[in-house]
Amino acid sequence: MNLMELKNINKVYCQGKSEVVALKDINLVVEKGKFTTIFGPAGSGKTSLLNIISCLDKPSSGKFLFDGKELSSFGKQDLDLFREDNIGYISSDFDLIPYMTVYENIEYAARLVEKNNIKSKNKVMQILQYVELYDLKNKRPNELSSAQKKRAVIAVVMVKEPVLVLLDEPTINLDSKTADQIMEIIVKINEDLGTTIIFSTRDLQMIDYAYKIVGIKNGKIADDEKESWIYYYGLPTWFFFLVNNKY
Ligand SMILES: Nc1ncnc2c1ncn2[C@@H]1O[C@H](COP(=O)(O)OP(=O)(O)OP(=O)(O)O)[C@@H](O)[C@H]1O
Ligand SMILES: [Mg+2]
Predict the structure, then answer these.
(1) Ligand 1, residues 48, 54, 90, 203: which to mutate, most atoms within 8 A of Cβ?
(2) ABC transporter domain: which residues (predicted)?
(3) What confidence tens digit (pLDDT) does each residue in 151-164 have?
């Protein structure tokens, strides 16, 4: 079953008199409960695409359907409400509130959606266990490592129980062991809670976690998975057979 569909999406940024075409005729279907990666080099359009899917930005043209709703026709206020109810976005500059502890940061987010105090506290405790930060719940962000911070950010977003979670390059600047730990938590969330996940990366090592790989370059997405690989990285064909065996 499809959660969302992008049809002929274009994004053009205007900078004074000049224009930057960031996304060109994007067609993309994301299935409910699945784990998709947007994979491409720097400047390829990953963030532009995630900004549109997260409803933070509107496309210049094209249609965006989410759970049967035509979001391209929504006004800003309705789009903001829709995002609050359905989408968690861990953008690359998403940060914790510096003067609050890990617990308080997560509780603050939980209170935005859960008015009942006991239920909200239970949710915070549960998510703290999930991201393995229970023992660090009283620490402030500046006392955490970058990987611990990233896990806390995931908890802040997940505690609101969004249908879709987007992560823009969640493992950038992390060493490969820590990056794997972060990806494993995201996989666990996807498997246990059925949350649909889309994450972007330029790291070849990370795409192995995804169910579906969508290559992007110069604002265009590849027609299929095979093209994503051959086109962008010139990998040997046997690599595909390995990847395709998963499906
Ligand atoms: N707000 C903006 N105004 C003008 N141009 C922009 C804006 N945001 C992005 N661009 C341009 O659009 C293109 C795609 O950028 P985008 O940030 O989406 O790529 P990206 O794949 O996320 O890159 P990176 O890996 O460096 O984060 C680039 O040419 C970029 O310079
Ligand atoms: Mg980016």
Answers:
(1) 48
(2) 4-243
(3) 999 999 999 999 99
